[in-house]
Design goal:
This protein is α/β, with parallel strands linked by helices. Helix content is 30%, strand content 19%. It has a 9-stranded mixed beta sheet with strand order 7-1-2-6-3-5-4-8-9. The longest helix has 12 residues. It is globular, with a radius of gyration of 15 Å. It is found in: Cytoplasm. This is Threonylcarbamoyl-AMP synthase. Pfam families: Sua5_yciO_yrdC. It catalyses: L-threonine + hydrogencarbonate + ATP = L-threonylcarbamoyladenylate + diphosphate + H2O.
C-alpha cells in the first residue's frame, strides 16, 4: 500500500471527515476523537448513541502513554503485555484528558494499540489515536468487506482506506482494567 493513502486519510481526519479502514477482524469507521462534530457525524452514520462511548485506536504505545501515567506498575505491565495487539482496555481517565463524547456514560476510556498495519499506518500518519468502531449501522452485522462498507454507507462520502482484514475472527476483546472484568469476548 502506498504511503500516500495514509497521508490522505490523515488529511481527511484533520478535515473532520469520517474514514473507513480494515482492522483486525472487521472494517472500522473512525474520525478525530477531539473533534466533537466529526464524532457526532460518525455516531449519526451508525445511529449509535453517544452514551455508549467509542474505542480509541492508536498506532503506538507512545500515542496513549499519557493515559498510562496514572496506572500502577502492575496495571501498566498487564496492559503493555497485550499491546500492540487485538486487546482493548478500558483505562481510567482521572484527569479527564479524553472528551466525554468519546467515553459516553463511562468514567474510563476504551483504548487499543493496534498491530494491524493499516490502523498503525493511519494513526502514525495522523500523529494521534483515532476513533475506531465497527463499520455498520446499529443492529447490522459489522462489515467484513469494503463492498459491505460501501453498501451500508452508500449515501455518505467516506474516505476509504483499502486493505485486508487481520486474522481475528471476532472484534477485539474488551476488558476493564480497574475491575478486571470482561466487557466483550473476542
Amino acid at each position: 500500500m502506498s504511503e500516500s493513502i495514509y497521508q490522505d486519510a490523515a488529511q481527511a481526519l484533520r478535515n473532520g471527515e469520517v474514514i473507513a479502514y480494515p482492522t483486525e477482524a472487521v472494517w472500522g469507521v473512525g474520525c478525530d476523537p477531539f473533534n466533537e462534530q466529526a464524532v457526532q457525524k460518525l455516531l449519526d452514520l451508525k445511529s449509535r448513541p453517544v452514551e455508549k462511548g467509542v474505542i480509541l485506536a492508536a498506532g503506538s504505545i507512545e500515542q496513549v502513554a499519557f493515559l498510562l501515567d496514572e496506572l500502577s506498575t502492575q496495571q501498566r505491565e498487564t496492559v503493555l503485555a497485550t499491546w500492540p495487539g487485538p486487546y482493548t482496555w478500558i483505562l481510567p481517565d482521572p484527569k479527564n484528558q479524553i472528551p466525554q463524547w468519546i467515553k459516553g456514560d463511562n468514567s474510563g476510556v476504551a483504548v487499543r494499540v493496534s498491530a494491524h498495519s493499516s490502523v498503525k499506518s493511519i494513526c502514525q500518519a495522523y500523529g494521534h489515536p483515532i476513533v475506531s468502531t465497527s463499520a455498520n449501522p446499529a443492529g447490522e452485522q459489522p462489515a467484513r468487506t469494503q463492498g459491505e462498507v460501501s453498501r451500508y454507507f452508500a449515501s455518505t462520502s467516506l474516505f476509504i482506506v483499502p486493505g485486508e482484514l487481520g486474522g481475528q475472527q471476532k472484534p477485539t476483546e474488551i476488558r476493564d482494567l480497574t475491575s478486571g472484568g470482561l466487557v466483550r469476548e473476542s
